[in-house]
Design a protein that fits this description.
alpha+beta; four-stranded antiparallel beta sheet; two-stranded antiparallel sheet; 9 helices; rod-shaped
């Protein structure tokens, strides 16, 4: 079919430029006045026609109209001119061609291809998200594992036990906590500095022992609560010191 007027196939349904149709119909009335009058025949914007601003080439941008083929066909009939009849018949033939089974199938296949491509992009995007989430999970997993290890044991724990988590001896670990101004030693017993005291991080136990002469004595020892153990974990991690379970990860 010979192209009488340019058809736009970029949208879901074919459209035609109202300005080009105005020129093809040889309308003497200025375009703006003519299209405003045409739109008054009961046509609805975003259903029968769409407006957009033209790109400025030095002058003022103008409002352009894209018409559905059905609206363009009805406008041609209103003109009652040879040009109107010719264009109307052109649009009728175009509609027939557009609605043949072959064209319908072609459009369906095109839409299917677009859907497939969209799904591929979506899957690629989701795949990237899953990969990023997996990295985050892997980064968080060691901490969660150590937390789980702590939460499994509600009892008080000695400094020796916690030191083992970090691959240190109790002596070295106590010295580390002392250097970090967390605890101090008095009369052979470790105590928290006032800054950390009173938060339930530690408790003391009294142990009885016999000297070499059989005399009975007692001494206090500081033990860590699970809250205190988590406190140490967070504080030491800020210093770049992590448990062995995380060093292995």
């Amino acid at each position: 079919m010979t192209e009488l007027i340019k058809i736009n196939y970029d949208t879901e349904q074919p459209t035609v430029s109202a300005r080009e149709l105005h020129e093809k119909l040889n309308i003497e009335t200025p375009f703006k006045k003519w299209i405003d009058r045409m739109c008054e025949y009961g046509f609805e914007e975003s259903k029968d026609f769409w407006t957009k601003m033209s790109e400025s080439t030095g002058g003022r941008p103008s409002t352009e109209y894209e018409l559905t083929i059905d609206m363009a066909k009805q406008i041609c009939m209103i003109q009652r001119t040879p040009e109107g009849r010719e264009c109307r018949q052109y649009f009728i033939d175009l509609e027939k061609a557009w609605n043949t089974p072959e064209q319908i199938m072609a459009r369906a296949l095109k839409m299917a291809d677009q859907s497939i491509e969209s799904l591929k992009e979506r899957c690629k995007f989701l795949g990237g998200q899953v990969e990023e989430q997996q990295k985050v999970i892997e980064e968080l997993q060691p901490k969660a594992t150590y937390y789980d290890l702590i939460l499994q044991c509600p009892d008080l724990v000695s400094t020796t036990e916690i030191a083992k988590d970090y691959g240190m001896s109790a002596t070295k670990f106590n010295r580390l906590l002392h250097d970090l101004k967390i605890q101090f030693k008095q009369s052979g017993v470790w105590f928290l500095y006032q800054k950390y005291a009173g938060f339930g991080y530690t408790k003391t136990k009294t142990h009885n022992y016999s000297d070499e002469y059989g005399g009975q004595h007692s001494r206090q020892h500081m033990y860590w609560t699970q809250k205190g153990r988590l406190f140490l974990y967070d504080l030491l991690k800020e210093e770049g010191i992590v448990p062995m379970i995380e060093q292995a990860a």
